[in-house]
């Protein structure tokens, strides 16, 4: 499991330590569910975020 | 009375919009102190709008099925000159200078806006137990939650305070209150309804849609609010369909997928029975029930949580230094979002693309899917865990488990009443369709509604 307190310190996330302790089980659960999925992504899959540029933007 | 019945009565001059509006305002006066569905009631402007609607109808100007019908919108939709709080102290005094696109559409359709409904703080939760505006209560049992985040709209419709309440749905926030309150909730396809002027929780998961007393009322509302809007970058140019199912519509030969994995697991037994009974009803009407295996929905839910946590925390980050402004549950979610790495967010959006492709293969086998909306009926206010057979599960995660993934995929979905549990609390059936095939899921839902009477049941002492 990740050390969320250390991550908070190194990332300058200002959350009281007692709060981080309360969040940890939920973050650990999500980490356990999500982390194995990442290695299954083929290299050519692009993210589904939206950014469009229209022709008139260059005029 | 439904919207369609009101529309008939208005045109037959059996009732006026002014009379309908006075009736609902009186009902709000009686019930709102107990149920807390509204943050703002707009008596004066509603009466003026009703008067105009009556004058227009008398003069032969007919704006369609919503003309003269009293409705409400969740307090996440901006209303010009009317406070829009998003259920948060941060926006306690926010008075927008514009109307949301949905509000514009409802006004063009002649609907009478009677108020702004309460909600879970910032639309970030499923209880509608709001620390700033009070607890919203379920009309079927005021000691239970109505679901959320569009809880006020659900309660207002279920208790007859309005004919339609608009909601927003990022991870089930229309369908959950629809299921818990025993009414219909429609989440359209991503891009079908403009998000312009809606205070966002998230950039890529938010959807807008109605909560109503009948399926055809949901269709009538979608008809009024659907369409392309250049002010919303995700708005689609896909043609708007015909969304009000005809009387006696058929589902003969419709291919209905009944998932053999995930969706029918870890349910309250009463929910399982109610959903399977509705599938049997569909079969008796000539539909084909096809057992299917769905892709990994637990993985899809994890992807959805990563996206939502990251996007919501990015959006609200400028406010989180002042921690006293948030309820503890919302603050905990906003704090969690700050731990999501940028690489994980990007990979979640890549997984979303993969899963969308995988899920789309289902549509060669079936026309729609039947699932429960929630694994159990409405929990008690303050309940943190739900017992589901041999399992105990966090209430928030359980409540969103069957609906969240559909937001990640952007698919249209409707929740309609499909029975009651042993305590008499309503249970919802979710029907999920192909992208932009709202017409089909509305038709399937209307055929089932015509064949059953669950939607006609009302909370005691309320209707």
Tell me what the structure shows.
The complex is a heterodimer of chains A (59) and B (463). Chain A has 59 residues and is mostly helical. Helices cover 49% and strands 0% of the residues of chain A. The longest helix of chain A has 22 residues, at 17-38. The termini of chain A are far apart. In chain A, 10% of the residues are buried. By secondary structure, chain B is α/β, with parallel strands linked by helices. Helix content of chain B is 37%, strand content 16%. Chain B is built from 14 helices and 15 strands. Chain B has an eleven-stranded mixed beta sheet, sandwiched between helices. In chain B, strands 4-5 form a two-stranded antiparallel sheet. In chain B, helix 2 (17-35) runs antiparallel to helix 3, helix 9 packs across helix 10 and helix 9 (297-316) crosses helix 11. The longest helix of chain B has 20 residues, at 297-316. The model of chain B has no long low-confidence stretch (mean pLDDT 97). The interface between A and B is medium-sized, with 28 and 29 residues.
């Amino acid at each position: 499991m990740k050390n969320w307190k250390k991550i908070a310190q190194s990332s300058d996330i200002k959350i009281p330590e007692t709060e981080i302790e309360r969040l940890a089980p939920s973050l650990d659960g999500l980490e356990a569910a999500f982390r194995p999925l990442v290695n299954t992504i083929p290299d050519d899959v692009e993210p589904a975020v939206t950014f469009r540029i229209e022709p008139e933007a260059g005029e | 009375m439904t919207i369609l019945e009101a529309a008939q009565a208005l045109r037959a001059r059996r009732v006026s919009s002014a009379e309908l509006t006075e009736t609902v305002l009186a009902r709000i006066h009686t019930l709102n102190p107990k149920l807390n569905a509204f943050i703002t009631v707009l008596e004066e402007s509603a009466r003026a709008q009703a008067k105009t609607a009556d004058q227009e109808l008398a003069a032969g100007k007919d704006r369609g099925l919503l003309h003269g019908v009293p409705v409400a919108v969740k307090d996440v939709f901006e209303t010009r000159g009317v406070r829009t709080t998003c259920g948060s102290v941060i926006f306690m005094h926010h008075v927008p200078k514009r109307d949301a696109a949905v509000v514009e559409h409802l006004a063009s359709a002649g609907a009478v806006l009677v108020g702004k409904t309460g909600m879970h703080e910032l639309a970030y939760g499923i209880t509608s137990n709001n620390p700033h505006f009070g607890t919203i209560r379920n009309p079927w049992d005021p000691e239970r939650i109505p679901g959320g985040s569009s809880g006020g709209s659900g309660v207002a419709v279920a208790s007859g305070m309005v004919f339609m309440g608009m909601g927003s749905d990022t991870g089930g926030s229309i369908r959950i209150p629809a299921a818990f309150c025993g009414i219909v909730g429609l989440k359209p396809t991503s891009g079908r309804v403009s998000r312009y002027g809606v205070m966002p929780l998230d950039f890529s998961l938010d959807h807008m849609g109605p909560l109503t007393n009948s399926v055809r009322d949901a269709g009538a509302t979608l008809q009024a609010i659907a369409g392309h809007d250049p002010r919303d970058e995700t708005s689609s140019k896909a043609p708007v369909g015909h969304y009000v199912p005809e009387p006696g519509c058929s589902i003969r030969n419709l291919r209905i997928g009944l998932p053999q994995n995930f969706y029918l697991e870890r349910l309250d037994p009463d929910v399982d029975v109610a959903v399977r009974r509705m599938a049997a009803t569909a079969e008796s009407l000539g539909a084909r029930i096809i057992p299917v295996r769905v892709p990994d929905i637990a993985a899809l839910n994890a992807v959805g949580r990563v996206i939502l946590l990251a996007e919501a925390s990015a959006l609200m980050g400028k406010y989180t230094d002042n921690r006293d402004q948030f309820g503890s549950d919302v603050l905990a979610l906003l704090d969690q979002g700050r731990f999501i790495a940028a690489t994980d967010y990007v990979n979640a959006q890549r997984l979303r693309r993969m899963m969308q492709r995988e899920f789309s293969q289902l549509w060669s086998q079936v026309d729609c899917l039947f699932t429960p909306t929630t694994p159990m009926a409405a929990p008690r206010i303050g309940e943190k865990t739900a017992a589901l057979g041999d399992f105990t599960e966090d209430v928030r995660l359980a409540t969103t488990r069957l609906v969240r993934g559909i937001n990640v995929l952007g698919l249209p979905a409707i929740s309609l009443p499909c029975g009651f549990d042993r305590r008499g609390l309503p249970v919802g059936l979710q029907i999920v369709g192909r992208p932009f095939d709202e017409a089909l899921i509305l038709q399937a839902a209307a055929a089932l509604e015509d064949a059953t009477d669950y939607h006609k049941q009302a909370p005691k002492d309320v209707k």
